[in-house]
TrEMBL record:
Hydrolase as UniProt keyword: yes
Biological-process GO terms, alphabetical: asparagine metabolic process
Residues the record marks as active site: 14 (o-isoaspartyl threonine intermediate), 14, 94
Keyword terms, alphabetized: Hydrolase
Species assigned in the record: Leeia aquatica
Domain L-asparaginase N-terminal: 5-198
NCBIfam families hit by this protein: asnASE_II (TIGR00520)
Family to which this protein belongs: Belongs to the asparaginase 1 family.
Protein name: Asparaginase
Asparaginase/glutaminase C-terminal domain span: 213-312
Length: 322
């Protein structure tokens, strides 16, 4: 088989981090190294694929904004439309990787493989995890089985869908999708896929900007004034309720009032595993709420932003589909 051509887009993060000493895994400078430097640390990459590398951003992923998502997605749509390119890899900081991956999952219109990865140890550290994660990401992007799955995340030998992914640990085993699990494993150049995502992806339009949507996390004794403050100036609010997205009666009354004022309410949960069932604990249809299903609140926020920007008439249908 001819070698595949993979576009590699670097955005910064710890994978491009640099520290004064090789034992330093904290207090390093993220996004310090350019993509050529990262590629030079991975012998054998050129045997996996022909790479077309570019440095799009050089930032710690704490600084990622909607403008970066829009630019990155537009770039990937253009690159993957090129018949000479067979797939793409994005190098990204881990702190907001699950949000960028989900944004790309929803907005990149291509069946070619798209894989994100990063690292927990800077490139200068002993046993840096970036080089192997990068090798695995390129192997996955070059593998025909990775096509048509939406955005994938490869991290610590595991292969995940962007949907439902969360950073769960501050060690190199940083990511987990909990009960929804891994799609597969990657070991060296061997990619083993065991499951395929069933929800829609790559079908939401890229708007010029995203509407403001905020998240509020419930806690015992949360005063309604905090809910009102979180909704100030927002087009939508994701409320990460208790348990199954449960709402204290005064929270429910406040959210229903905000909905009547034109603010879209997604009922989500602060519980990491489980699904917020529509019209289960709360009469969502009566109050005009949208159930966030099992999406982590930051991913529910992005879906609401894209759905609102697209003028989606059936928000619940959009959540049920994705
Ligand atoms: N491990 C990492 O990449 C963390 C870093 N602060 C980032 O998200 O850019």
């Amino acid at each position: 088989m001819t070698k595949r051509r993979i576009a590699l887009i670097a955005t910064g993060g710890t994978i491009a981090g640099s520290a004064a000493s090789s034992s330093q895994t904290l207090g390093y400078q993220a996004a310090a190294l350019q993509v050529e430097h990262l590629l030079a640390a991975v012998p054998g990459l050129d045997a996996l694929a022909d790479l077309q590398a570019e440095q799009l951003f050089a930032i710690d992923s704490a600084h990622i904004t909607a403008a970066h998502w829009l630019q990155l997605s537009a770039r990937l749509n253009a690159v993957l439309a090129d018949p000479a390119i067979d797939g793409a890899v994005v190098l990204h900081g881990t702190d907001t990787l699950e949000e960028t991956a989900w944004f790309l999952h929803l907005t990149v219109r291509s069946d070619k493989p798209l894989v994100l990865t990063g690292a927990m140890r800077p490139a200068t550290a002993l046993s840096a995890d970036g080089p192997m994660n990068l090798y695995h990401a390129v192997a996955t992007a070059a593998h025909p089985a990775s096509a048509g799955l939406g955005a994938l995340v490869v991290f610590g030998d595991s292969l995940y869908s962007a949907r439902g992914l969360q950073k769960r640990d501050s060690t190199p085993a940083a990511f987990d999708a909990d009960q929804y699990g891994r799609l597969g494993l990657v070991k060296g150049s061997h990619v083993h896929l065991y499951q395929r995502p069933v929800r829609a992806h790559g079908d939401l339009p890229l708007p010029p900007t995203l509407p403001p949507v905020h998240i509020l996390h419930a806690y015992a004794d949360l005063p309604v004034t905090q809910i009102e403050a979180a909704a100030q100036g927002a087009a939508g609010l994701v409320f990460a309720g208790l348990g199954n997205g449960n709402l204290r009666p005064d929270w429910l009354a406040c959210l229903a009032r905000l909905h009547r004022q034109g603010i879209h309410i997604v009922r989500s949960s602060r519980v990491p595993n489980g699904t917020v069932i529509r019209d289960g604990e709360v009469a969502d249809s009566q109050h005009g709420f949208v159930s966030g299903d099992n999406l982590p609140p930051p991913q529910a926020r992005i879906l609401l932003q894209l759905a609102l920007a697209a003028g989606e008439p059936d928000l619940q249908g959009c959540f049920d589909r994705h």
